[in-house]
Records
---
Amino acid sequence: MFELLATDPECGARRGRMSLPHGTVETPAFMPVGTQGSVKTLHPAEVAELGAEMILGNTYHLWLRPGPELIREAGGLHCFAGWERPLLTDSGGFQVWSLARLRKITEEGVRFQSHLDGTPLLLTPERSMEIQAALGSDVAMLFDECPPYPCSRDYAAGSLALTTRWARRCKEWVDRHAPPSGTGRQHHFGIVQGSTWADLREQSARELVDLDLDGYAVGGVSVGEPEAAMLDAIDHAVPFLPAAKPRYAMGLGTPPQLLAMIARGIDLFDCVMPTRLARHGVAFTPDGPIHLKTRQFEHDHRPLCEAAHPHVAGFSRAFIRHLFRAGEILALRLLSFHNLHFYVRLMRQARQAIEAGSYRSFQQEFLSRYTPNHSP
RNA sequence: GGGUAGGUUCCGGAGCGGUCAAACGGGGCAGACUGUAAAUCUGCUGGCUCACGCCUUCGCUGGUUCGAAUCCAGCCCUGCCCA
């Protein structure tokens, strides 16, 4: 299912290919986030056109609305949402963290109160797998608990152990309900937890690897931790993950962070940043992010950047600023398209650099120009 | 000409004797956003110091009062109604 095509001689960067029921994904890859089955503001054809090969959907949100039965009835999430390429579904574990005020964690699972109408709900490892099976995603994530940052070592250790027990239950459910082989089958990734402790990350990784899953993710990042802690979490987990399987850093990150994690051997990313910031008026450029709503772009008649996709290259910064101020939906669409294209293009450049054996210099060249808080 | 309702900080619009530099909304200006409860959220938005504080503002001019955007008088302007 995962083919390792090349490894950079100077760092851990890998060039790979995932073969999934709905197509292949060249890695390193970035997955746009489509929580509700839709990458916000964009038509699936546009997401495909900007170059995304795989997107992400969310179990928790699709469970609550419209419900897995309806999606199964429609022929699965691919048919229902009009996305023909590979699709990964998150397990709902992250909502345990992000909707923390409305939940209670037990051995059995997580008792939620629906954020929509307050209905009491119970999400268990088995239920998460069952829902994801109904959604028919190419990759389903095992149900995990994502601890907050910071958290005590005791909490992290207990949380990790729970995530492992839940992972075993997920695997058991899958083994009972789905055939273990077959090219069209759903694949399953485990999620390494352990917060900021190296030994806990190692323990979590080893316990999940014992389950012989199709891929492994590093979770518990993108929860407000400093960047150094984020990179450490990756470093503490990756050495214990099998080289022959894909590695996925969940919920990350900024362009420099993505390049840093690729150098550490990560193959797969997802992040709301390009789409959310787009809707909030921020465009990514090779010089760094620019806040288009600010006055400095009032008379800026240049395109967003020289690398802009033809679909957006014809629009000036001044015009897009005008669209934002006027509350026009096109502003959100143009920047969503542009930012995702920027991310996907960055991954393509990274892949080419790895193939050429020059990933380090590519990364350095990118960083030398990119200013995190850019103001021209 | 008569009657009537008003004129408030960029706009709309509260306030109707002190706790008013003046609610709230809009607009404007910044900032935040990392497995999406986010086309969202937060802050600032008279001047000077930008902390305390001080100064100048609520159509204009006078007056009452310890004290007025708030009460009184005159004037100017605007909407509506009647001639």
---
Amino acid sequence: MAVKYTIPRGTFDILPEKSYIWNYIKHVFAKTAMEFGYKEIVTPIFEKADLFERSVGDTSDIIQKEMYKFKDNKQRTFALRPEGTAPVVRSYVENNMQANGGLQRLYYMGPMFRYDRPQKGRYRQFYQYGVEAIGSNHPYVDAEVIALQYAFLKRLGLKGIVLEINSLGNKASTEGYNKALRDFYEPHKEEICGDCIARLEKNPRRLLDCKVPTCKEIAAVAPVMIDYLDDECKEHFEAVQIYLKAMDVEFKINPRIVRGLDYYTHTAFEFLNNKLGAQNAVGGGGRYNGLVQQIGGKESPGIGFAGGFERLILSLEQEELFMGNEPGPDVYAVILGDKALVKGSELMQKLRALDVKIEYDPIKVSMKAQMKTANKVNAKYALIIGENEIDNNAYVLKNLDESTQDSLTESELLEHFNK
RNA sequence: GUGGCUGUAGCUCAGCUGGCAGAGUACAUGAUUGUGGCUCAUGUUGUCGCGGGUUCAAGUCCCGUCAGCCACCCCA
């Protein structure tokens, strides 16, 4: 079909039949976050580009090739946000939330943008939900944030998702580890793939999960991050695990977890659905103790996570958790003729005032077509309004599930729905 | 950004070595003069993704392009 205007590549419309499930997920997330004491924060869709360049890290692909950058009329460079943490931290610093003291618990939802080649579960405009807890380095907070996302996924009914955690240590241990990795790989330079040679420079941790067989063999005996943690980092990581167990959160330690953004330190975690194919990360996050300072605030430790709506919906569909369809109307009005429609309009309006969800479709003319539609939209009742009913003040209310019907006067009808 | 597969009715898809564009489903009408779901009958729906080329003739072959999917990459 040749349509004149088509949607931009890597974007999608949320059509009415899907918007119900989107709203449902948003609702469940907001509810879960609020139970943990998190409050919503809404930041703009675009920010100054250098906010991301400085925080996310200028070596990452997200900044190097995936950011939607543009100049406004005054030649200032902005970017559509590629992720949610930097804007929240910017707002935290700019609004001096530190002055409130204590821990700030924030949640957000909204579209993010990355210029990448689309495939299933990967879009150029995609929707994330996430939280940030800023102001404490206590390992309980790490566990709380993880437990929140865990609770959210459980509440949606998802079973096929596993949680993996890791510690990336502090800056010193990360640097030490990266050096150890580079030293280890140096003598193997001839044997590893081209991608891995680039990783050696750019992001040595990624060497560990290369899929090329020869690289895999080498990676299997490469040094592991956990051995490079100092005592403080180790203690923190162990404490997180104790709290997670206390909160009955199931997890697995995976020393190979790498996060895509440069600002992560200490705890890192991922929720994976391995039935999803290549794009299997349903959500993930980690601690970012240096980020607030980097963005210009007083040093303040933080941790957060983000997850994608699209992969969540794919997972729900896969596990056949369709959350039910949108409920049908309470009443479908079967109105026979234009004369009856005048009284019908009046009646429908009176019922709506009683909070009754009522639909009518003037395109369907015959009674048969209207009854059929009432059935199709899954209405509980069909209300028949014809000239006979109006003349006799006796309206037929048919219960479509039970196939029973009663004849009611207008006041009886309103009484029936006045609960 | 790299490689591969696919694009035909609203949806799912068939269409062979070029020869009248199809099925199921959905939708509409009727069987049932004002009562839905089941059944049966009849009917409507197409720039065959788009542009070009080869040919008497292209949904089919060739080139280009756009889009989706799969893998890499990256990550949500």
